[in-house]
Write a structure and sequence with these properties.
Strand content: 5-15%
Number of helices: 8
Number of strands: 7
CATH architecture: 3-Layer(aba) Sandwich
Largest sheet: 5 strands, parallel
Radius of gyration: 15 Å
CATH topology: Rossmann fold
CATH superfamily: P-loop containing nucleotide triphosphate hydrolases
Low-confidence stretches: none
Length: 177
């Protein structure tokens, strides 16, 4: 059975301003869930692992993020208002990018329907402690992410590059319309 949720997704390829967006949405009092991949990386770094060790097997890393996503969504009531940083279709894009079978993820994506999807346009690329992708990979992932949502039938709202408060208002005005 397909479940319609009260969940929204804000997504993009690497380096589009998702983290500052979620900080701002939290500041405004919205119920959000930030990046699972960064959460996993931060936990592993706290155990003494390096980013190189954590991301040395990208397919295994992405499969772990998918498992975390499934667990999170299974624990989140479908009627609860929530804004997720990334959604399950992002896992399709990342696994496809590293040459993995995406059929189990596609099947899992079809079990729930997000209420809305917002795609942030990318900012100029900058590496940080958790980002290992090249600028070319970031652009390719951005396209794969958009394609994953479109292939699942989502109407994706593109959010242009603007200051974080203006981007947030675009998203919130659409959510509350």
């Amino acid at each position: 059975m397909v479940m319609k949720t009260n969940w929204y997704v804000v997504t993009s390829g690497p380096c589009a301003g998702k983290s500052p967006m979620f900080g701002y949405l939290n500041f405004l009092g919205y119920q959000t869930c930030s990046s699972l991949s960064r959460t996993y990386i931060d936990v592993e770094i706290s155990k003494g692992r390096t980013i190189e060790e954590i991301r040395s097997d990208e397919a295994a890393f992405q499969k772990k993020v998918f498992e975390m996503r499934v667990d999170l969504e299974n624990r989140t009531p479908i009627d609860r208002f929530m804004i997720f940083e990334r959604g399950m279709p992002d896992c399709i894009a990342y696994l496809k990018h590293c040459g993995q079978n995406t059929n189990p993820v596609v099947d899992a994506c079809k079990e729930r329907i997000y209420k809305g999807v917002f795609l942030l346009e990318q900012l100029p690329y900058k590496k940080d402690y958790a980002r290992v992708e090249s600028e070319e990979d970031a652009i390719a992932l951005h396209k794969l992410i958009k394609k994953a949502y479109l292939n699942l039938g989502y109407n994706v709202t593109t959010v242009p590059v603007k200051p974080v408060d203006e981007r947030a208002m675009i998203i919130l005005n659409k959510i509350h319309a």
